[in-house]
Amino acid sequence: MTTEELKSVIRQVRDLGALAIHFSGGEPLLRKDIFELVAYARGLGLLTRVNTNGMLVNAESAKRLKAAGLTECGVSLDSADPSVHERFRGTPGLHARALSAIRTLRRFGIPCRVMTVVMKSQVTEGLDRMISLGRKERARYMYILLPIAVGGWDDASEEVLTAGERAQIRKLQDLTFAHLEMPTASTNCCVYRRSILYVSANGNVTPCAFVPFVLGNIHDQPLERLWRRHCASLSLECRGDCPMNIPRQREALRKHVDEVAQSLVRDPISIP
Predict the structure, then answer these.
(1) What does the pLDDT look like over 94-144, one tens digit per residue?
(2) What H or E segment, with its residue span, contains residue 78?
(3) What is the pTM of this model?
(4) CA 191, CA 13: separation in Å to the nearest integer?
(5) N or C, which terminus of the chain has less Cβ within 10 Å?
């Protein structure tokens, strides 16, 4: 999408009453207009976060993010062991770049959260070391994500954590620093709490960045219409894990999205 198209999305997000917008990816710092977009969102009163792998964070980009008013920056770091992180990410030298990014952001006064995906091999000793590293680097806090069977892991159900493994991870939570995406076994999915919506780089709208089922496209439908139609018929719940990790939950969510998308096709409107 162009800069102006993304600004339109940001305005629509604000008009829906959202409090925050997160620029993710891929790698959002590849966009030359990311600083302009962050400043635009802040000008509309939205909290902003950029999620990055750290490769493109340097003194110049951090200074520009600070000037744009960025509220927070998330840096992905999946292991305290450089070889594990770089094998997982497929990029030599990325561990050092991520640590450098955390330090640079701190130097420019941008709050930084470390985002880590807990693989089975990291339960729980590796995660404990990861939390210690985050504290050592003086990150604002750590956000712990669970593996989700989508994207490159679509057929990797063996990577999904068991209920017992999730329980072990939850014991490492610390309200002052280490936060878990699903903090308790009764935590409902954020999609079902109606607290999230994702707009992809080509304008496709899905219930979440980890849900590949498309409600519609912002080039064809106003975001408000997609959101309200989605919420009006949403009556699902999934507690303690992502619905994409549970076949029956995944199918129920797919069916819901398909029904919303079909209802919008049956009830078209013209976009000026």
Answers:
(1) 999 999 999 999 999 999 999 999 988 889 889 999 999 999 999 999 999
(2) none
(3) 0.93
(4) 16
(5) C
